[in-house]
Amino acid sequence: MDTAPAASAFALSEDERAIVGTARDFAVEHVAPHALDWDRDKHFPVDVLRKGAAMGLGGIYVGEDVGGSGLRRIDAARIFTEIAAACPATAGYISIHNMVAWMIDSYGSDEQRRRWLPGLCAMELLGSYCLTEPGAGSDAAALRTRAVRDGDHYVLDGVKQFISGAGVSDVYVVMARTGAAGPRGISAFVVEKGAEGLSFGANESKMGWNCQPTRQVILDGVRVPAANLLGGEGSGFAIAMNGLNGGRINIAACSLGGARAAFEQTAGYLREREAFGAPLSTSPVLQGRLADMATDLETARLMLWRAADALDHDAPDKVTLCAMAKRYVTDAGFAIANEALQLHGGYGYLSEYGLEKIVRDLRVHQILEGTNEIMRMIVGRTVAS
Q1: Which among 84, 68, 97 is positioned nearest to 20, based on CA atoms?
Q2: How do residues 114-157 score in pLDDT, each as one tens digit?
Q3: Helical pair 236-272 and 88-107, crossing angle rounded to 10 deg
Q4: Which residues are catalytic?
């Protein structure tokens, strides 16, 4: 009879530890030392992104035959957590780039995959995802950008809003209407930088995420070869929604990483800072607040891993679990970072400590990839049916 203990469901294998370690080393060496400067200067660190791509970060869950790493969603969640501990905004853009690569890998033809994915995986080509419009945010099925067939091309007209990487990225996956109103009339296209009629708005002035550009993408009679259609006419909304399942757990991972960094910095600060003749960490009240932060971090991590595992195994409840994780982890992450700032007192409000940057960066995670109000609607419809 075999009496060896069963492997823990939460213990990482040697390979998994190596993946996490590689991501952590990259973040510590190449991202963390520069994050505050990038934020202040609104600098998009393309050179550093490409260093990450050399370690496999440009196509984390893209097929190895086109240069991807071929990893799982749970691996990606751990990777984004580590990068976000150094800079949530940098991790956020890498997540978006990976969503673009995954869409082409999953829905593109073999010719499309081999045309764009090697460059995307190397981050020689950068990707942007274009769904949101000035009048169609949460109600994505109401988008108005149109694509009209003209011979062996489609002609695209419309405006996309809040597009990360816009103006710098080389590859834009654009959702446009080819049919009637509603989700079934939407198709997905790959639009390349330099296309005639493609232009960009001014770089938005934002509360956070300052190390990546955010602009409108303006399509004015852009002629796109029919060969750039992804997955066939009418499949765009399904592509977008399936992509967002992964995007939601990725952005949750970015919140977890930022919150973890804020917590660890705060625990160290309370051990070092003295008041009334003793370290602040000896105060039962402050210990209790740290305990709550630690508990919320652990709960968030478990929810994130659970959702990522469901996506990896195509579980029937994957959409609900991804929505739950996105809502809970981004809410908890922001609350933990905000509490960390509070526990630093006035020092937390100073830029040099980095906490106010984490708070600013994490705030938008409750909005993008589907607002948390929409996440509640997704979960509510499931549990009420």
Answers
A1: 84
A2: 999 999 999 999 999 999 999 887 788 889 999 999 999 999 99
A3: 160
A4: 369
